[in-house]
Amino acid sequence: MTQLEKLAALRSEMKDKGIDAYIIPSSDPHISEYLPERYKCIAWTSGFTGSAGTLVITADFAGLWTDSRYFVQANEQLKDTGFELVKLKIQGVAEYVTWLSHQLAAGQKVAFDGNLASVAIAQTVQTTLLPLGIEVYGHIDLLDAIWNERPKLPTEKAYLLDEKVTGQSTSDKINAIKDTLREKHADAHLISSLDDLAWALNIRGNDVQCNPVVLGFLLISRAGNTLFIDQSKLTAADITTLADASVEVQSYELLFEHLKSLEAIRILLDPKRTCFAVYDSIPAGIQILDAINPSTSLKAVKNAVEVENTRKAMVKDGVALTKFFKWVEENVSENTLTEISIAEKAHQLRAEQPGFVDISFDTIAGYQAHGALPHYKATQESNSTLKAEGLLLVDSGGQYQDGTTDITRVISLGKITKEEQADYTLVLKSMIEGSLAVFPKGTKGYQIDAITRQPMWQTLRNYGHGTGHGVGYFLNVHEGPQVFNPSAVDVAVEEGMITSMEPGLYREGQYGIRIENLLLAKPKETNYFADFLEFETLTVCYIETSLVDKTYLDQKHIDWLNQYNQWVYEQLVPFLTDEESTWLEIKTKEI
Q1: Which among 335, 404, 405 has a CA at the least distance from the CA of 367?
Q2: Where does the Peptidase M24 domain lie (predicted)?
């Protein structure tokens, strides 16, 4: 079926069921960012493959609401599909609900699949539309009837990690969660989000590409703890190990039946990370406490074992990337390298490192104009051939058994303009400013974001995405609750958090620049005024200096760059050949 045929079939289903508007979020029953094949509903329906967006279909309009990271991509992928791009003004806001409130009249019906919509989204739809007399139905899946050969749920095996790898036992983690539940006077807590479940149970899997997670739900209560999972994913030894940690294993499909018999008086659910179908199945009479998953905050603060292992993963990643950029530089003049082929090479070189499991997200290899698309992924149609000129942006990462990496570098392939040098240097200056930040305990991410943007704002430049996101430990590359962006998110930067630092500049149709390292928040000094924190840079990969225009930098920025590149060389040279060491020595030479 073409996208036009799928849209026609969907509208036919809507007409048969008396539905005037249908909402399809980019999500699954665990409110994941990256999805199993079965739940890639937006990609199947519209052809748009970005990781954030919402489809809204009416009888005479079909739109994709997404943010600025995907505007160019969406315009290209939605061509001739019957769907139109609707540009979000504010990232993450359900602006389509307001649009529906103006398009529909009292008595008309809006529907969505409650397995795909978070509680927060469902409640926004209800509170906006129900007072207008518009009916809302939250348990209707229209895609199943028209999606022939829809993929089944994954059946890959799961596995448990040893406490020596995680630094904390499952029992201790569950007890820490229960401590928070007692503070909030909650009798039970359901974890739906896969990374929270993985952290709590020291379990990993292969159910979602790039994310080492396994599909499941974890119910923690005074009566006991139950993991709902496809039991064929676990060995008998795994089930015994979980039982020793007071975790019973039940079938994945039994969750809803179990919830019907729930005896807890007060249950904690995270409205942003729980699907509406689960929320709406909680029996009447049980009080639902809307609050962030306790595990989300607990896992954001890495313990000493996680931090030390992450440092080891960074060195492995740096070795792979040194080999990668050397290979690109030495082969680009042959005009045989493409965006797809270099992404494959980066994957190959990472896979040669001990403990490698997978990439942590689809590699963004953007040559020249494609670098201006923050979430670009090359396709056979868009795949550019590299030439010995212009800028190449590579944003990539790896999943290792001892950590998760995420790094962006921009390199010169030749014939660089003064404007490109100025933009590159200002991005670098901003990244250094953020990395050098010293701040009192309690500082929020939006304050770090503002510090980082200062060099750009002073030259009347800016970028549309956030400055940084939390990163998991052999888990999801995007992890909360902390984030560095302009939004007033009331989450402090805490000691032990690992967060990306990735300012950028983008000139549509020309080039894009982004430089990204991962930072660890750690203590700086305690004095009369406050407890102060600073950042330690974890990422171990040289930063291109041939693009730097020193006139834009102060001496502190030059010193930081020289010291960082020298540190990178010292960290990596024991693992490189003589030829590779010589090449890296040149790349890390002081400016």
Answers
A1: 335
A2: 309-521
200: phi then psi, degrees, rounded to nearest 5:
-60, -40
- Helix, strand, coil shares, percent, the chain, to 5: 40, 25, 40
Q: Which of 103, 137, 171 is the last residue of a domain?
A: 137
Alpha helices for 301-436 (secondary structure H): 304-331, 339-351, 418-435
3-state secondary structure 453-474: HHHHHCCCCCCCCCCEEECCCC
What sign for the dihedral angle of Cα 471, 477, 480, 484?
positive
Domain identity same for 441 and 548? yes
pTM above 0.70, yes or no: yes
Q: Which token pair is 218?
A: 């974890």
CA distances from 466 to 296, 331, 470, 501, 546 (A): 20, 34, 11, 9, 27
Q: Is there a single domain that holds both residue 574 and residue 439?
A: yes
Please give the distance of CA 431 from its chain centroid, rounded to a whole number. Answer: 20
Residue 470 contacts residue 480 (beta carbons within 8 Å): yes
Q: Are residues 471 and 522 in the same domain?
A: yes
Q: Give the tens place of pLDDT for each residue, 42-52.
A: 999 999 998 88
- Helix, strand, or coil (residue 450): helix
Half-sphere exposure of 470 (CA within 13 A, CB side): 26
The CB density around residue 119, as the number of other CB atoms within 10 Å, is 24
- Scan for tokens 């080999």, then name that residue: 323
Nearest Cα to Cα of residue 33 among 256, 250, 208: 208
Domain span at 66: 3-137
Question: Which residues on neighbouring strands pair with residue 22, listed in sequence order?
Answer: 57, 111
Q: Is residue 144 part of a domain?
A: no
Residue 480 CA to chain centroid, in angstroms? 9
Domain membership of residue 314 (yes or no) is: yes
CA dihedral 52, 511, 360, 170 (to 10 degrees): -70
